[in-house]
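Hi C.,

You asked whether I'd gotten around to modeling the 248-residue construct. I have! Everything is below, sequence then structure, no commentary in between.
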Amino acid sequence: MQILEYDLVTFPVTNARILCVEDDADIARMLAEVLQDSGFRPVLVGSAVQMDALLKRESFDLIVLDVMLPGEDGLSICRRLRASSSIPIIMVTARGEDIDRILGLELGADDYVTKPFNSRELVARIRALLRRVESGAAARSRPRPLTFAGWRINPTTRELHDPAGVRITLTGAEFDLLLAFCRNPGQVLSREQLIEQAFGGLIASVERSIDVHISRIRQKIEPDPKDRSMIKTVRLGGYVFTPAVEQL
């Protein structure tokens, strides 16, 4: 792959700040134009090195992250970001590379689009992710924490604590899914219902995305991930959250 070097480009607009990590200069500038026309404030960088330098001094509302990058690739970057940040991440993958999409979700990406992508779809996915973040902030004065099996989930602070009081890191998508389960304990929820309740009806086009997110939640909350006693799969039905849930 040819490594392209270009200067950092910013565009004065009015809305959320979007960091685009894309080494193809033509695609990057197209992204910037689409996002700017949609009212966002895009910033372009071409590598992990540029991204890291920028994140040390500036904050962003969302990251659009290409998988194929010079030096450190997008999957490695996603894993590293998730170790310390819950910023929404949309992965950009090559068409047909299912393994990249699945790995991206398993490493903590919130959503993905495939190249060549429809600009309207990308903008819709960005807006959907940002709405989830905004709705969580707007709800701070309303919902009370919920508890299940000794765990505590707080919709206000968007935090999850285990029975020992240790905070467990969740991605935005994982938190929204677990909260949807906690608000519907004992009910069989189809993938379509989970998509509607947790994501407002918009997520990556394949249902596999839900399965990957739920697999990651299980790894974090199940006493025995192989037993799946908290989130059970209902054949031909979906999933059911089995613990009793109480509001504090």
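If it helps when you're writing up: The radius of gyration is 18 Å.

Thanks,
B.
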